[in-house]
Amino acid sequence: MTIGFNKNKYPEQRNIIHKVATIEYVKVRNYKRIVMNGLHNLKGLVVNQGGLTATKDPFYFNDFDLNRVDLLHLFNYISYGRTPWVATFETILPRFETSHSLIHAPVNTYTEPLVDPSIIKALDQLAGPACKRIIGLSECSVNMQKTFLSHFPAHFPKIVPKLLCLHPPQALMVNSWEEKALALEGDLHFMFVGGQFFGKGGREVLEVFQELRTQRGYPIQLTIVSSLTTDAYASNTSETDVEKAKGFIANHKDWISYYKSLPNPEVLRLMQKAHVGLLPTYADTYGYSVLEFQASGCPVISTNVRALPEINNDEVGWILPVRTHPSGEGYYATDTEREAMRSAISTGLRQAITEIFDNRAIIVEKANKAIQHIKTKHSPKDFSDTLLKLYIEATTGLHEHA
User: Fold this and answer.
1) How far apart are CA 339 and CA 326, in angstroms?
2) Domain assignment present for 322
3) How many folded domains does the chain comprise?
4) What is the pLDDT of residues 39-66, one digit of tens each?
5) Where are the alpha helices (DSSP H) in 104-199?
6) Within a domain: residue 402?
7) Are 156 and 304 within one domain?
């Protein structure tokens, strides 16, 4: 069996490519996108077909059935061809700017999208016979998809049966806390990983850690792997904030180790030398670093947004409760909401770090539970078996929905 994928980025590597050892995976070409972009770039034209422009829907796939594969497996994309396909998604499909803006909107704002031809056309593809399965990264994603589809009653009964949740796989880096051979005495080593430093709560980490080191004398060591990217989406930060963070890090090299970027194997190696992982994020569609920390024997301090409560909890780590929409998305649309989020993250961090230093043995307890969580909930073998079964059903017609 040959499975086609159209991108070779991190989400595809985590969820699609080479996840089933007996399958041949082939990178395919999005010929429709090539044609549309070519015309747009060469002639200065915006190609509009059925309400779809070259820039309106970047997640549009159509290979005109020229890629010789048995099945397409896409990430966040919708296929408009006849080749059988499945899609893994992180929020909702279709991934239009208009559809995403409606996730937390009241029902009466759906008037325009309900008749938007590009959305209807995309939903037609999801409901059609070529689409075999729609795979949410989390139950949160699946529920968001169902909520969105509930506004489209003609499509809802055809698409919802195709939905399933399949969490990403994660290989273990260590089999137990003891394998890490880390001392609990002396400095405790915390680690933060993520390009969007501010949106993932990095500023709050710096402020709270400095406060606890200064006021309580906690011997904290912190490793940061981040490009310190600004975030206009959730934390609403600027280049000024970046320069402040860089200056702070440079002035505290005695307890902060900073890397702009590292290859993933090196990041995993550093995780195995850390006591606790950090993801006190404003907004994250999933939280892959949580799985990597847990697989490395690091319990994680995270917020409760989106899928995070599905992969982290107070048994295996620490949850910082922030105000969320019913969908799981945090409140950060206004300055007032962002300030409340910032305050909740800072308060939660203080409480979690204090608990850790009051009882260091809790790290071992939570680390071993986190490792067990990865074994049982994110087994690469179980993931592979599920995906293979799905591929077989999709290509043999054993599980038809349309």
Assistant:
1) 20
2) yes
3) 2
4) 455 555 444 444 444 345 678 888 877 7
5) 117-127, 139-149, 156-159
6) no
7) no
